[in-house]
């Protein structure tokens, strides 16, 4: 039975301020020539220190962070949602917490660190595809004591959303603690950025892995021992759901004209968690989440286009 009221989702992860930059092919080539770590299309890379000559003239400032984006998507899909993470003392300047509260996310456990709020530089090309450079900022302050203090909220959840934009060590310790807990939440891991994520993929408590095509290829042998469900996000191509290398089913995304693909995967993840928490079957949850991911691309910004559950259902009915 699907329960659209009592399902509970917790997202432990990053909270960012996104700086959106519209770029041409020539501008992208110039960035790639100057910085050998500059991401390819659809990739996210994390840099601990932003070079002084990495000059970015943002067209827009938006709210982001994979953790916060996924929490917002889950809340929009009618899940009772908590966000766990850290922001900087500048968070009021960017209305970071009110933005989460405005879509129904409970941010009461978010702490303030002595560092700037995390930043993502989101380069959007003329086709709406993105390349993302993340500077952790306050997200790096998430440590084992903070995560340990959230144990009650995490264990009370139906689904736990994780990503790889916060330190790995406290998340790895959390997963080890959850592994033998019969009452633990269902755990969904988005392995992005993919660098350094292997210890989380190896954790026995991870039930769902949601890589995009680049991440899926980069994980390589790490997937061989993963016995959970893999939901492969493939842009405009069908989502592939598999387990132990066996394809279970595929889901075709609806055709839309994308303005910005930033946050599409986050929308899919958040809605997937919300629907699984509500008791939906895996197929129904993936179908609903796939529609959400596609609809989210129709507006610029990681959260602006994230649809409500009612909007998703209306779209599916109209097709």
Descriptive overview:
The chain is of the alpha/beta class and 319 residues long. The chain has a single domain, classed as UDP-N-acetylmuramoyl-L-alanine:D-glutamate ligase, CATH 3.40.1190. The protein has eleven helices and 16 strands. The chain has helices spanning 25-34, 66-76, 96-102, 144-149, 151-155, 168-178, 198-201, 213-219, 264-277, 282-295, 309-318; strands spanning 8-12, 16-22, 44-46, 60-64, 80-84, 86-88, 105-106, 111-113, 118-124, 130-135, 159-162, 186-189, 208-209, 229-232, 239-243, 246-251. The strands form three sheets. Strands 7-5-1-11-12-13-14-15-16 form a nine-stranded mixed sheet. Helix 9 packs antiparallel against helix 10. The longest helix is centred in the last third of the chain and has 14 residues, at 264-277. It is globular and about 50 Å long. The protein starts with 7 loop residues before the first strand and ends with a helix. The model is unreliable at 1-5 (pLDDT under 50). Belongs to the carbohydrate kinase PfkB family. Residues 55-307 form the Carbohydrate kinase PfkB domain. Keywords: Kinase, Transferase. This is PfkB family carbohydrate kinase. GO terms for molecular function: kinase activity.
């Amino acid at each position: 039975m699907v329960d659209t009221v009592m399902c509970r989702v917790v997202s432990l992860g990053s909270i960012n301020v996104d700086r959106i930059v519209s770029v041409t092919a020539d501008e992208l080539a110039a960035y790639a020539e100057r910085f050998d770590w500059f991401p390819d299309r659809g990739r996210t890379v994390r840099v601990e220190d932003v070079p002084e000559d990495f000059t970015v003239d943002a067209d827009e400032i938006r709210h982001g962070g994979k953790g916060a984006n996924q929490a917002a998507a889950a809340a929009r899909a009618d899940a009772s949602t908590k966000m766990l993470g850290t922001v900087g003392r500048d968070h009021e300047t960017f209305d970071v917490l009110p933005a989460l509260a405005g879509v129904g996310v409970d941010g009461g456990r978010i702490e303030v660190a002595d560092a700037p709020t995390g930043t993502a530089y989101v380069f959007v090309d003329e086709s709406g595809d993105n390349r993302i450079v993340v500077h952790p900022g306050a997200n790096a302050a998430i440590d084992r004591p903070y995560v340990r203090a959230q144990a009650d909220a995490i264990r009370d959840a139906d689904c736990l959303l994780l990503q790889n934009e916060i330190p790995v060590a406290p998340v790895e310790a959390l997963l080890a603690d959850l592994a033998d807990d019969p009452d633990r939440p269902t755990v969904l891991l988005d392995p992005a950025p993919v660098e350094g994520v292997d210890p989380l993929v190896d954790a026995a408590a991870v039930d769902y892995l949601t890589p995009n095509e680049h991440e899926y290829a980069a994980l390589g042998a790490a997937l061989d021992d993963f016995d959970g469900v893999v939901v492969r996000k493939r842009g405009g191509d069908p989502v592939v759901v598999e387990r132990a290398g066996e394809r279970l089913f595929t889901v075709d995304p609806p055709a839309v004209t994308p303005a910005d693909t930033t946050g599409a995967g986050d929308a899919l993840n958040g809605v997937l968690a919300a629907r699984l928490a509500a008791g939906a079957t895996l197929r129904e949850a993936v179908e609903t989440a796939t529609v959400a991911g596609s609809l989210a691309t129709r507006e610029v910004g990681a959260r602006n286009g994230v649809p409500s559950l009612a909007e998703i259902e209306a779209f599916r009915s109209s097709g």
